[in-house]
Every structure is written in C-alpha cells, then in structure tokens.
Amino acid sequence: MINFSTDELRPHERFDHWREVRGKKLFGVTIELERERRADFTGRFAAAAVGGATLARMDASAYQVSRTATDISRMPSDSLVIFEQVAGPGWCDTGRGDPFHVTGGELIAGHSDQPYACTPATVSHFRFRALSIPPDAETEFSGSARDLAIAPLDPGGDRYFRLIAAAFSALFDTGERLAEPEAKKAVGDLAQLLLLSRALARPGSWRSRNALRSGYVEAARQVMKRNLHRMNLSPETVAAALAISVRQVHLLFEPSGKSFMRSLATIRIEEACRLLREAPEQQVADIGFACGFHSLATFYRAFREVEGLAPTDYRRMMQERADH
Which fold has domain 228-324? Predict the structure, then answer.
C-alpha cells in the first residue's frame, strides 16, 4: 500500500516533487502547471496491489498531464487501464481525432502505452480512480490490445458498459478485502469485459462467459444496494433493471450458495452496520426501516443471523472500540 500527501512537504516544494518524483518516476507522465499557481498546489495519492493489478486513488489541484512517446519509451508498462474521473472536468487528446470531453463519473479505458494529453477545464481540484491491469493468463489479452487508444466508454452504446462499471466499482469498494484468488479472478473478469467491449475477446469463450456472469452479479448487487430501502425489492426489480429474465437473476446467485433473498438480506445488514457505526444519533428502528426491513422484529432476527448479536449490542461494541 502506498500513501502520499503533499501536506508532508513545504509549500514551495510540493508541485516540483509531485511532477518529478510522483509524475515522472512513479506514473510515467509529464505534468505542467502555471508557475503562479504552483505555490497553492496540493495532492494526495494512494495505491494498492489487488489481484495482480494496481488500484489508485488521487485527489489533487488541477494540472495538465500527458503521456508522451518519450514517457512511454522511458517507462513502458504494457497494461490495460481504466480511469474514472470522479470530479473535475477536462479535455483529452489522443492524437487520433477530435479531443473528447471528460466529465465527472465518466469511465475511460485503453492501453497504458498509448499517448494522450489532458487539459483541465477548471482550476479546482480533480479526483479520479484508476485500475492498471497487466497481461495475464486469466484473460484473452493479446498483442492487439496494445493498440487500444485511451477513449471513453459509452454508457449508451456499449452493451458491456454497465457490467464494466459495476465490476470496477466493486474492486474499489471491496477488492482490498478479498482473498488473493478471488481478487485475481475479479481483476481478470474485469479485463475480459473490457476486451469484449473493444471486440478483442471471443464472446462465447469460457473466459468471456465467466466474466459476463461476474459482471452481471456485480451489476445486480448495485441495483440491490441502490434500492435496498424498498421493502418490495424483488428479483423482478433486478431483472427489469438489467434487462434479463428473473430466472437468470436467480442463476446468478446460485454458485455463491446464497439465494437472491439471502444475498439481499446480507447487503441490507451491511448497510445497517455502516449506519449503526456512522450515525449514532439515528434510532435503531429507523435504520432498520431505511434498510428495507418491514418490521423491527424482522430486522433484529436478520441482524442476529448475520452478525450474531442484536443491532443495539453491535452499536455499543463499535462505540466502545472507538473510545479505546
């Protein structure tokens, strides 16, 4: 795990360190910022190895960044990359046509050794998440993948977009807690989905079928998390959201050994645990109803089945740990 913040440096050193040590030597990119703005520069970066890939998070003052032919020659990486611009709009030019606009929440993907130049459209901070996936036997990664230009994924025209987005978010949410075999599979499945979206993998291969199932599972979980407050949330709800059959929804959860309803109960309890920890002023009953339980008795029973104790005892235990 790597964590770095410019707060550890003196103001006049921050940008130069970020550009030379972090940008050039760690990221393999060229960074520029108007001299008059450098004294106010701040940045935070964190990265972790998960399943053979690298998950990175960044929050920094806006600046121009490019990966030039010189950068690539000096520091090749030969990886598939997926970026999410969480906040901070801008423009990206790959030299393959018109520059495209990057907005908050957009996913961009391609090969790490393809050039690009990005210019911010704001002077405020930007935040992004990035996943770098090296070649692996778990995917159909081939030489042609090295020609993938950095380009946005189309949520309206790419049939794999929703699955890629769900798998990407799941890795950032839970990837660091997964056992290595599970993390490696999750990374491989996401890479395969990206190759499918760029027509560089065979849709009918076993790798593709496994990746599609994993993507649909994560997409289904996203639908469930967004709608867990609905007491009538059902397999039909998820099937309609994903444009698949109800039978397919049930089949998605079979290999886990948990039914759809048991999986939903687990997701609801996870959210209840978060609220019990982070919202001490909120009544336990209100948390249960907010998480989709139709009665306090049902909430207590489900919570005990998953956590082994009552919600009130869980909250007390978490508060005692925080106090110590």
Answer: Arc Repressor Mutant, subunit A (1.10.10)
